[in-house]
Design a protein that fits this description.
alpha+beta; OB fold (Dihydrolipoamide Acetyltransferase, E2P); Dihydrolipoamide Transferase; six-stranded mixed sheet; four-stranded antiparallel sheet; globular
Length: 548
């Protein structure tokens, strides 16, 4: 029977999503676990996998289109199956008439109960307090397990902080906070499983009394609960639990290994045999922590002569020249980088200007500065400082193209490109023109360290007005970069080269460095970019001008 897939709610604040890309097309065969599409919200772009197998019979939302949560996204079924009734019915929710009747009866009972509670309640949720519920991380998710909490009660929480790792039967995902305040209450402890929309946490002003907020996220009521409703829920829960235990037993008897998708992926990457791992999750399920803690037992004792003789012959030698690929799944960071750089390169008309800078004075000045106690300045720090000062004199370079207008930033926020294991991130040094070179050096070192340890917060990577990318430490003499939009320019810094130069009509040994400026021609004309580089060159060749 055909299965209807709706636009999933990928966070507790998500109201709509955009289909960034379909990875399957109509008519394709789909296996359980295949990635169907990439869904984009205002927070992230996430891969959305199929929980069914069959043929993709219908695509309800095309690439680039936006649709509310629970809108028909796709239909999967048997090849050639008639799905006209599902298309006419909208989202195909009428699969089970008995379920509808039960839901309707339960809804009426809930409404009745809510009326009682509203008459006898103790008040509403305090002002400024936010209720965080168990998110629905896929369209089939009914419940989730808190694998681990990264915050504890009483901790300060910023918007974008990771609160917890939520595990479903399909994946383990980091769940970030969309609010800021103090974590006042944890509703589901580590290892606890709860239905979607259950109270996960409460965030609000420090010291707020949340004792009157019940575990369903509502104010506690002194009214009597509907006994019939409670009995019915307990009976249903008991049936579900019995069914689940029976299923678990049958699956264990069949030799199936229970493991989360994340645990399977980690085991595959590390070459771990899952059959030798003891699971600590529910019903012995193997989770992420079990793979991290797994230590292989020692190799068996030396083989006997008989066993050695019984060993099969060695595998034949694989000749040189055999074609082989290693497929590495793209991380979310890598896909985001690819998307944004592609948009920048193909939308913004790039052109490039290169200038060569005499580094003799800069090298001498840096040596003198670094001889002072507790002070260390790099050539990159000097370039950042010089760029910030040059932007003050050439505001056109410190601009953004919006289509209808051009915005000239009066503040100077320097983006500093940092290479990390999964790609490239650009932490932002805010108000860099107001910092000394030593302050720039300290801040850059701190941000780069956080970037490599994946500790950067979203606000530390936002708001750049100009970017510097330095590959000089790798011996690269000259290169060009793609503009980090919405910036209008990016500076590429090469290595310092020792070579013959002409000074006062004589050939002497000198040290030079090449700087290449990539500009968006929509905002920065060639003459403007050239003037900026001339000013930048003056500052770097005369470092004393940057000490004022």
């Amino acid at each position: 029977m055909a299965e209807v897939i709706n636009m999933p709610r990928l966070s507790d604040t998500m109201e709509e999503g955009v289909v960034a890309k379909w990875l399957k097309k109509k008519g394709d065969k789909v296996e359980e676990g295949d990635i169907l599409a990439e869904i984009e919200t205002d927070k992230a772009t996430m891969e959305f996998e199929s929980f069914y197998e069959g043929t993709l019979l219908h695509i309800g939302i095309e690439e680039g289109e936006t649709a509310p949560v629970d809108t028909l996204l796709a239909i999967i079924g048997e090849e050639g199956e008639d799905i006209s009734e599902l298309l006419e019915g909208g989202n195909g929710d009428s699969k089970d008439e008995n379920k509808k009747d039960d839901d309707k009866e339960e809804k009426e009972e809930e409404d009745s109960s809510n009326e009682e509670e509203s008459d006898d309640g103790d008040g509403e949720v305090p002002e400024g307090v936010e209720i965080v519920t168990m998110p629905r991380l896929s369209d089939t998710m009914e419940e989730g397990t808190v694998a681990s909490w990264l915050k504890k009660e009483g901790d300060k929480v910023e918007e974008g902080d990771i609160l917890a790792e939520i595990e479903t039967d399909k994946a383990t995902m980091e769940f970030e906070s969309f609010y800021e305040g103090t974590l006042l209450k944890i509703g589901i402890e580590e290892g606890g499983t709860a239905p979607v929309d259950s109270l996960l946490a409460i965030i609000g002003p420090e010291g707020t009394d949340v004792s009157k907020i019940s575990t369903d996220g509502k104010s506690k009521s002194s009214g009597k609960k509907d006994k019939k409703k409670e009995d019915k829920k307990e009976e249903k829960a008991s049936e579900d639990k019995s069914s689940e235990k029976a299923e678990d037993k049958s699956q264990k008897d069949s030799g199936r290994i229970f493991a989360s998708p994340l645990a399977k992926k980690m085991a595959e990457d590390k070459g771990i045999d899952l059959s030798k791992v003891e699971g600590s999750g529910e019903n012995g399920r193997i989770v992420k922590k079990d793979i991290e803690d797994y230590k292989p037992s020692e190799k068996p004792a030396a083989e006997t002569k008989e066993s050695q003789e019984a060993k099969p012959a060695a595998q034949p030698y694989v000749p040189a020249g055999e074609e082989e690929f290693e497929e590495i799944k793209n991380s979310q960071m890598r896909k985001t980088i690819a998307k944004r750089l592609g948009e920048s390169k193909f939308n913004a008309p790039h052109y490039y200007l290169t200038i060569e800078v005499d580094m003799e004075n800069a090298m001498a000045s840096r040596k003198q500065i670094n001889e002072m106690p507790d002070i260390k300045v790099s050539f990159n720090d000097m370039v950042i400082k010089a760029s910030a000062m040059a932007l003050r004199k050439h505001p056109q370079v410190n601009s953004q193209w919006t289509g209808d207008s051009m915005k000239l930033a009066k503040h100077i926020h320097m983006g500093v490109a940092v290479a990390v294991e999964e790609g490239l991130v650009v932490p932002v040094l805010k108000f860099a023109d107001q910092m000394s070179m030593t302050q720039i050096g300290g801040n850059v070192k701190n941000l780069a360290g956080k970037a490599r340890n994946k500790k950067l917060q979203p606000n530390e990577m936002e708001g750049s007005t100009f970017t510097v990318s330095n590959l000089g430490m790798f011996g690269i003499v000259e290169f060009t970069s793609i503009i980090n939009q919405p910036n209008s320019a990016i500076l590429s810094v090469g290595t310092i080269v020792e070579k013959p130069v002409v000074k006062n009509g004589e050939i002497v040994v000198g040290h030079t460095m090449k700087l290449t400026l990539a500009c968006d021609h929509r905002t920065v004309d060639g003459a403007t970019g050239a003037a900026f580089l001339q000013t930048l060159k003056t500052y770097i060749e005369n470092p004393v001008t940057m000490l004022a």
